Amino acid sequence: MGQIFAGLTFTAVCLAIAIAMMRRGKAPRIAAIIMFLGGCGMVGSWFHGFATKIASVLPGALVGFIAFFCAVGFALDCWGKKNHAGKGTAIIGFFVPLLLVVMPVSVFGVNPDELIKGVRDITQQSQMITTGSRN
Question: How many whole angstroms from its chain centre is CA 112?
Fold first, then answer.
């Protein structure tokens, strides 16, 4: 339970810094990247579960297109010296990490939490070594 509040606290701090930077009109690319980091704090919180439930109801192609479009748009807006990052990019950047984590649920029907648990179980089983003597 403490990890959920730690993630949301991280998100709140990033949001506060990014909003202050956007209001002053200084360093919009840095504000967008800070909003992206704040969005990373939402992954694993109750927002993640809420977004997963919504994504499982929507068509997979729609969620995949939105996630891809937002991620590519965010990256291209923040790329290079002549970037176009602004308030819209920062807002999209806030939701990109959550969209990228939720996308496999809708597109492939795979819940990332179950996939991680399955991989962890397999690696733990493969690391078990039994020693015994051959007679």
Answer: 12
**Cα–chain-centroid distance for residue 84?**
22
> What pLDDT is recorded for position 2?
46
Q: How far apart are CA 29 and CA 18, in angstroms?
A: 10
- Of the candidates 105, 113, 112, the one whose C-alpha atom is nearest the C-alpha of residue 62 is 105
**CA neighbours within 13 Å on the CB side: how many for 42?**
24
The stretch 41-59 carries a mean pLDDT of 78
Assigned token pair, 85: 């990052």
CA-wise closest residue to 43 among 91, 89, 100, 109 = 100
What is the DSSP secondary structure assignment for residue 104, as one 8-state letter?
H
The whole-chain average pLDDT of the chain stands at 76
